[in-house]
Amino acid sequence: MKHPFIALLTDFGTEDGYVAAMKGRILSEAPEVRLIDISHSIKPFNVRQAAFCLNNSYPYFPEKTIFVVVVDPGVGTSRHGIVVKTSQHYFIGPDNGVFSFVIRREGFQAFRILLDAFEEPVSPTFHGRDVFVRLAAWLANGQTLPNYLSPVKKIDSFLNPPQKISGRELILEVFHIDHFGNMVLNLHRNDLLEYDDLSRMRVRIGEVELNSLLDTFGAAEKGALLLSWDSSDFLQIAQNMGSAARQLKAAIGDQVYLYL
């Protein structure tokens, strides 16, 4: 079955021609494909930012879309390339955690890419052009690629579950800080389904404690810190009309204590 859309997400920028090289290769193999740019402005080597960007976008793409993600600081090393298949989409890229959110929210099959199967030379520094988009183009043409893929049961993920200290106390971590300085935590709304009443929810980061769980930023005073669920239903610490991360001097990996 043919796949008409290929969506690209990289940290390449647009000034060096790397994205164009990948698009050219795709169109040479699958000229009828529709190419979509998710972003090429991921900070260099920032796998977590790419994973978060992918999570915010991929559920809204048409069925059969193929996503190629190339944020790959380990290219040419022992890290493997992978293809992940869900009920709706394909994902192709390095096995470095970039698909952490996909495998958290979806049932999936995963396949390791066999580099030795490629007859043409593969650049050790540009698997995006020579491996990932070629597989994407072949899948778009309806090929099944049995000679290029080997099933695997587990792939890399950086998304750690909340650490439970007691029945009503959890240790969370900041796993992403977005463009606005919102601090996204590793707690999804579904993680709290066992708790009937969240009205007493409060968090502590450093010496700061917050207990205002609000639906919108504008429900807080300008400059005030707040808690809210982000658009993908992860808990976040935000500041109305400001940067919570800057205000709290926070960084990726900082611990946050949650009390229920």
Would you kindly provide a brief summary of this structure?
The protein has 260 residues and is an alpha+beta fold.
3D structure, described in words:
With 260 residues, this protein is of the alpha+beta class. The chain folds into 2 domains: 148 residues, 3-Layer(aba) Sandwich (Rossmann fold); 97 residues, Bacterial fluorinating enzyme like (Elongation Factor Tu (Ef-tu), domain 3, Beta Barrel), CATH 2.40.30.90. Helices cover 18% and strands 30% of the residues. The protein is built from 5 helices and 15 strands. Strands 8, 9, 10, 11, 12, 13, 14 and 15 form an 8-stranded antiparallel beta sheet that branches. A hairpin with a 2-residue loop joins strand 8 and strand 9. It is elongated. The mean pLDDT is 94.
Uncertain ranges: none
CATH architecture of the largest domain: 3-Layer(aba) Sandwich
**H/I helix tally:** 5
What overall geometry do the principal axes of the alpha carbons give? elongated
The portion of residues forming beta strands comes to 25-35%
- Label the structural class: alpha+beta
Main beta sheet, described?
A: 8 strands, antiparallel
How many DSSP E strands? Answer: 15
CATH topology of the largest domain: Rossmann fold
Question: What's the alpha carbon Rg, rounded to whole Å?
Answer: 20 Å
Text of the CATH class of the largest domain? Alpha Beta
Mean pLDDT over the residues: 94
What is the H/E order?
EHEHEEEHEHEEEEEEEEHE
Distance between the termini: 48 Å
